[in-house]
Structures are given as C-alpha cells and as structure tokens.
Protein: TnpV protein
Amino acid sequence: MSKTIFEEMGGTYVRQGDYNLPCLSLPAEKENKPIGVWGQRHLRYLKQHRKVLYTNLLTNGRLNSYLADIDEQAEDMFLRLVKQMAEREGVTEQLKAENALEWVQRMNNIRACVREIVEREIIFA
Structure:
C-alpha cells in the first residue's frame, strides 16, 4: 500500500477502533509571555466571533504572542486614556485629599468610560 502525503511528511497514525487517526500536535511557541485581562477578553472574543482567525493563530503557534501583544496595547491605551481624562476633568491628588468619596466616584466613572473605549477599539475589533 502506498504512503499517504501525511506519512511521507513523517506523520504517524494511531488505530482507534476501526479508524486510523493522525497523531497531531500543535507547534510550540518560542516565547511564553503572560496574558492579562485584556488578552483573555480578546481570546474569548476570538473563540466566539472570529473562529477562523483563532484557529489560524492556534495552529501556527502564534496565539500566545498575539494575545500578549493585544494585552500590552490595551493596557497602555487604558492607562494613557485614564490619565488624560483625569487631567481634563480636574481629578487631582488635591481632590483626593479633600474629598475622597467624590474622587473615587469620578475615577470609577472615568475608568468605566475608558474600559468601553478600549474594548471597542482593541478587544472587539
């Protein structure tokens, strides 16, 4: 019996019941960077809405580095926008010292607005 293309490339099969299944494994990634909250949110988005892109990244061995890059971009954007919006709206350390409750309320509002911006621009894009 002639060899299949998979066998010619060095692949092997395992017999399970009546079927010969190929022994497949994913390529190892070169770097194993940590993935934060933003990367996990983007991963969930890819799995649910961009299945082809997710499968391509996974099978090429680039998923982890891609998610780490997305996480880094989103975190940088989040911190930069929070700082800019806090300066623009006058949320300062002086306000924090004088009226902590108002400072917390305004900062939570700013962070919620920025979270939506980052999600729309990077995570769900």
